[in-house]
Amino acid sequence: MCRSIKTLRPPALPEEATEADIRAAALQYVRKVSGFRAPAAHNQEVFDEAVDAIAEATARLLAGLEIRGQTPRKAD
């Protein structure tokens, strides 16, 4: 149904995760949990809201993680 969600924090990702990386992971998560690759029109709004919420939470998580040798950054 969908590809594996990849680790987005250093050192697993050689550089900082981009907004596109975070959104792609959120989309994959929502697809997996909902069981829909593409939702029907009547489910599109709630599907998109879930992707947005998960992307925001992921960005906050990544920004707040303390990784040895690096200082945490603030989420945009």
Task: Report on this structure.
This is DUF2277 domain-containing protein. There is one protein chain. The chain has helices at residues 19-34, 44-64. It is mostly helical and 76 residues long. It has a domain at 19-64. It is elongated, with a radius of gyration of 14 Å. The model has no long low-confidence stretch (mean pLDDT 86).
Main attributes?
76 residues
Write the layout of secondary structure elements.
Layout: H1 19-34, H2 44-64
Helix pairs in contact: 1-2
Low-confidence residue ranges: none
Largest sheet descriptor: none
| Principal-axis shape | elongated
Number of helices: 2
Distance between the termini: 31 Å
Question: What's the short story on this structure?
Answer:
This protein has 76 residues and is mainly alpha-helical. The chain is 49% helix and 0% strand.
